[in-house]
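Request: Mind sharing a record?
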Amino acid sequence: MPDFFGSEVTHDVKAFKARCGMIVANRWGDDFADVAERVYTRNLFKRD
């Protein structure tokens, strides 16, 4: 699997969500709706 400065890189969103206990995102995306309880973002109102 490729890496970026020692961190694993994946392009499979489904596998990413299955592996992560917590997701920190700069912006909210509808791709995270099914794991919303594990997503932390500064975008409180899911806009901008």
Summary: The chain has one helix and four strands. The mean pLDDT is 89. The beta strands are 3-4, 7-8, 23-25, 39-41. Residues 10 and 16 are 7 Å apart (CA to CA).
